[in-house]
Design a protein that fits this description.
alpha/beta
């Protein structure tokens, strides 16, 4: 394999992207870039510096002086490990709110590209191969049937003690699929040079082995 390996994994909700991305990163001993945690880091810094969503000038100044990175499983905000501090309900809400701001999205995509230029990474999302790491050495589009993805999410909710009717989970997922693939900015789609991996009839270990074999 090449000295630098950038692996982009895109796909719809519930396809198992984060599970596979984390597994590949561990197996290859490279960093997994948790793009969701990056939005949490921005939300955490906004709360810490008392910057509101409406104060766009202050937000722009803060973003200009913000550095986020990943190393050995840790998320670093301006050189400081913030792993446990960004997993609170307050941070979750701020992360969701700030992710809709174009200034935040532009900054984090820039940082994600910088990480991809500097080192080997595994990154998953909706537009990694089509927008963030367009020159990644490996691109995969991980999918599964709507019914199987809904079943997996339903089981996760059961395990977390937040049960929901399977039909409702499937309806929510179908709506999210539509929104993700029809949004005006960087919609969910398979990159032309990505390999599609249908995990409907595979477990995580089988998907991992399949992708590792393709990379070899």
């Amino acid at each position: 394999m090449m000295d630098k390996r950038r692996i982009a994994i895109d796909g719809p909700s519930g396809a198992g992207k984060s599970t596979i991305a984390k597994g590949l990163a561990a197996a290859l001993k490279i960093d997994y870039i948790d793009t969701g945690a990056m939005y949490r880091a921005v939300g955490y810094k906004m709360i810490r510096e008392k910057i509101g969503l409406e104060d766009r000038e202050a937000l722009k100044a803060m973003l200009a002086d913000t550095k986020i990175d990943f190393s050995a499983g840790n998320i670093l905000l301006d050189g400081e490990v913030i792993n446990d501090r960004i997993r609170t309900p307050e941070i979750s809400k701020m992360a969701s709110d700030c992710s809709a701001l174009p200034e935040v999205r532009e900054k984090l995509v820039l940082l994600q590209r910088e990480m991809g230029q500097a080192k080997s990474v595994v990154m998953d999302g909706r537009d990694i191969g089509t927008n963030v790491l367009t020159d990644a050495e490996y691109k995969f589009f991980l999918t599964a049937s709507l019914e199987e993805r809904a079943r997996r999410r339903w089981l996760e909710l059961q395990e977390k003690g937040t049960p929901q009717a399977l039909a409702d989970v499937e309806a929510d997922m179908a709506a999210r699929d539509y929104n993700d693939s029809h949004r005006p900015l960087n919609p969910l789609r398979k990159a032309e040079d990505a390999i599609e991996v249908d995990s409907t009839d595979m477990n995580a270990e089988e998907v991992m082995a399949y992708i590792m074999n393709l990379m070899k």
